[in-house]
Design goal:
Radius of gyration: 20 Å
Number of helices: 13
Distance between the termini: 26 Å
CATH architecture of the largest domain: Alpha-Beta Barrel
CATH topology of the largest domain: TIM Barrel
Number of domains: 2
Helix content: 25-40%
Shape: globular
Structural class: alpha/beta
CATH class of the largest domain: Alpha Beta
Strand order of the largest sheet: 5-6-7-8-9-10-11
Order of helices and strands: HHEEEHEHHEHEHEHEHEHEHEHH
């Protein structure tokens, strides 16, 4: 269950730039590591995670760390763009420069502002939340789920990566071995056509088993996804369509009342995201972009504050990283 961190303050957001007028020592360190097994989605095979660890040091010697974890095919800047921006900042950065990071660099915004907030964070612990468990694509999910020893939990399975008829047959088998009380999420990563999405929803409506179907259509087809959300019982969620805070705001004001899957590490400023979620109280599910523990901690703090308390967060992915 999600936790609301009572009394948690965000001094970076609550003070004006002129009041703070802080100058930080800035350092950044790129990283690159291969996944033990590639992650298969409708976007293709993802085999290597690249990102940048950033640190800010203030005049009191305190150090705050953040992570820039781009996902360009999802809507963020590229790794090269983020690295070039960090080079341009030099060895010192002030509040005005941090506030001026452009929206075209959402992962960079998140990483550097998260480092800034980490300087003031009085609760460094990762909050306690319920996680989803990401199953492998295809029939491999059956063996993994069959070996699961718990009696409940939330599982996520990628669809739209193989033959749709075979995938629906696998879904029927997954339903048979799903633990009592467990929830199942389907994620198409925008890889379905409209007729395919309609067929999937016909099946899931009859099963009454799926917690939600995530991003059935490409993000350019928002009107069609909106129509699907009205015409079927299965709950739909947006993911690729709300990759950044700007897109999140646009879809909400465009009429979306379903679930918003938020990949905060590429969404842009955590301050902007926080303001929006508090103002509109959306049904939010925070999700991983396979960031390291530094980015993960920053995102989970946001998730504890902003995500829907009755939904598991999308962070059961450590088995893909180690």
């Amino acid at each position: 269950m999600g936790l609301f961190i009572s009394g948690f303050q965000h001094p970076v957001e609550n003070l004006s730039l002129t009041e703070m007028n802080e100058i930080y020592q800035f350092q950044f360190h790129p990283y690159k590591y291969p996944f033990p097994q590639p992650l298969l989605t409708s976007h293709g095979n993802w085999a290597v995670r690249e990102g940048i660890i950033v640190s800010l040091r203030d005049d009191n010697g305190r150090i705050g760390r953040g992570e820039i974890a781009p996902l360009p095919w999802f809507g963020s800047e590229t790794f090269a763009m983020a690295r070039n921006f960090c080079h341009q900042l030099g060895e010192e950065v002030n509040n005005q420069e941090i506030a001026a990071i452009p929206d075209s660099l959402p992962a960079t915004q998140f990483g550097i502002i998260s480092a800034q907030e980490a300087l003031e964070c009085s609760q460094p612990q990762i909050p306690s939340l319920h996680y989803t468990y990401l199953l492998p694509a295809g029939a491999a999910a059956l063996q993994v789920l069959a070996s699961y020893k718990g009696e409940e939990g939330t599982f996520k399975w990628k669809i739209g990566v193989g033959d749709p008829v075979e995938e629906r047959e696998i879904l029927a088998q997954l339903a048979q071995i799903l633990p009592p009380g467990a929830k199942l999420r389907l994620d198409a990563n925008g890889g379905l056509t409209l007729p395919e999405a309609q067929k999937w929803l016909e099946v899931t409506d009859q099963m009454n088993l799926v917690e939600f179907l995530e991003q059935p259509l490409p993000h350019q087809q928002f009107p069609n996804m909106l129509a699907l959300s009205y015409n079927y019982q299965t709950t739909l969620a947006l993911d690729e369509s709300v990759a950044t805070a700007k897109q999140l705001e646009a879809c909400y004001h465009g009429g979306w009342k379903g679930i918003f899957v938020i990949k905060a590490a590429i969404a842009g400023s955590p301050q902007r995201l926080r303001r929006f979620c508090h103002q509109y109280e959306i049904d939010a599910v925070f999700s991983s972009v396979f960031e390291t523990s530094i980015g993960r901690t920053a995102v989970l703090r946001l998730a504890a504050e902003l995500s829907s308390p009755h939904r598991a967060v999308g962070f059961g992915v450590n088995h893909w990283l180690f």
